[in-house]
Design goal:
The protein is an alpha/beta fold and 410 residues long. It has a single domain, classed as 3-Layer(aba) Sandwich (Cytosolic phospholipase A2 catalytic domain), CATH 3.40.1090.10. 44% of the residues lie in helices and 14% in strands. α1 packs across α9, α2 crosses α12 and α3 packs antiparallel against α4. Belongs to the patatin family. GO terms for molecular function: hydrolase activity. Keywords: Hydrolase, Lipid degradation, Lipid metabolism. This is PNPLA domain-containing protein.
Length: 410
């Protein structure tokens, strides 16, 4: 039975590779080696950069490395901006999170009762340290397990909020067992129709799920059975980039990767082996997911490097096992080099985060603050009250509605 479950999960992962390859094809043909021929603005002509945060699935740290990185990054941004109340959501336009990364995206980008995000990055770190293992470890009965306790926890945290209640553009993948293809929950789609709006507790439950998880839209028109984002898309960076470059209604000046600033957070690469023992089903899924995440990293890095924008792509990833993420942040950063594989950078992960990612985010934040009334806006995110009118006036294409159009109702 365990072998059948393993084969089933690996088959699902192989199916998700079709989406990954399609994303890479778009990046290569449309944005990597040339200008679009359909009137898209020339890459590099935007008045500023669209800021993308991508958060991997659990990895070897069950989400702790990404959560620790975000806590350190938010603290640095607060100190440098002079705003002690600044949040991660203030410095990013798009967030894509898979598995526990999707939960972090929800915690940091869902609007609370006071209008601010539900959690600070420090609070999100505490949440993951306390609950991360629960999200990723299957019970002894097999790779699939019931999610009643997790569902109750997510319901307590997110309450009645839905995708429409997120503050910025949010993308959370899962694997749709009904269609046999990846499905991306998208704020942009939710604002266009209730059939694509889902409770945030269920969105997070679906991207975490180790067993079939039933989910339906707020109007009941869209129903699906899903398993986690770690199976579908362990590293959602390429999907987020494709979403921005195809969504001209919200990101009108993004013509290529030169117009983007991407911070991609890994969650640790799992150990290479267990002394020759046959790995468990869950371990196999993590290994396959890690390989897919690494492939995404190399493809995205190649896209930025080939256009002279390597510094605008920051990747944080660790190796081995680390319960609190601190030791992994001290490890030397690993860079994917065009046509040369990977190399160790001189700086550590933490130094890369604080001395590369943070300054670029602050620069763009200040540019918008000081030049907001002079230069055209880089981002025109739709808001719930105007969603219907905006959707009627101009059609929008995104990663979920374009790439997955044949596989989902959204």
């Amino acid at each position: 039975m365990a072998a059948v479950s393993t084969i089933s999960m690996l088959d699902s992962t192989m199916e998700s590779d079709h989406l990954t390859n399609h994303i890479f094809s778009i990046l290569e043909n449309k944005f990597l080696f040339g200008r679009c021929s359909d009137g898209t603005p020339t890459a590099g002509s935007a008045p500023g950069k669209v800021r993308i945060l991508s958060i991997d699935a659990a990895g070897s740290t069950d989400g702790v490395l990404a959560a620790r990185s975000l806590a350190r990054l938010e603290a640095a941004l607060r100190a440098e901006s002079g705003n002690p109340g600044a949040r991660i959501a203030d410095f990013f336009d798009v967030v894509a999170g898979s598995g526990v990364g999707g939960v972090l995206a929800g915690l940091l980008f869902t609007r609370g009762k006071d209008g601010s995000p539900l959690f600070t990055a420090g609070e999100a770190l505490c949440f993951v340290l306390e609950n991360g293992g629960r999200f990723s470890r299957p019970e002894k009965s097999g790779v699939f397990r019931r999610r009643s306790r997790t569902s109750k926890l997510l319901k307590k945290v997110f309450g009645e909020t839905t995708l429409k209640d997120t503050l910025k553009s949010v993308l959370v993948p899962c694997f749709d067992l009904t269609t046999g293809a990846p499905f991306v929950f998208s704020r942009a789609d939710a604002l266009e129709m209730d059939a694509c709006d889902f409770p945030m507790a269920d969105v997070c439950g679906a991207t975490l799920a180790n067993r079939p998880f039933e989910i339906k839209s707020v109007d009941g028109r869209t129903r699906t059975s899903a398993v986690g984002g770690g199976v579908a898309m362990s590293n959602p960076a390429a999907a987020a980039i494709t979403h921005v470059l195809n969504n001209k209604q919200e990101f009108p000046f993004s013509g290529g990767v030169e117009d983007l600033l991407v911070v991609s957070l890994g969650n640790g690469e799992p150990d290479s082996g267990d002394g020759g023992l046959t790995p468990s089903s869950a371990s196999l899924v993590k290994i396959v997911g890690c390989g897919a995440a690494d492939m995404v990293d190399q493809a995205v890095s190649m896209a930025f490097s080939s256009r002279g924008s390597r510094s605008s792509y920051v990747r944080i990833q660790g190796r081995g096992k680390d319960d609190d993420g601190e030791e992994m942040l001290k490890q030397r950063n690993v860079e994917s080099v065009l046509f040369q594989g990977k190399k160790l950078a001189a700086a550590s992960n933490l130094q890369t985060l604080l001395h590369s990612a943070a300054p670029q985010l602050l620069k763009e934040h200040r540019r918008r603050t000081t030049c907001g009334g002079i230069l055209p806006p880089v981002v025109l995110l739709k808001q719930p009250p105007q969603a219907a009118a905006a959707a009627a006036s101009s059609p929008r294409t995104s990663s979920s509605s374009t790439i997955l159009s044949s596989n989902s109702s959204c």
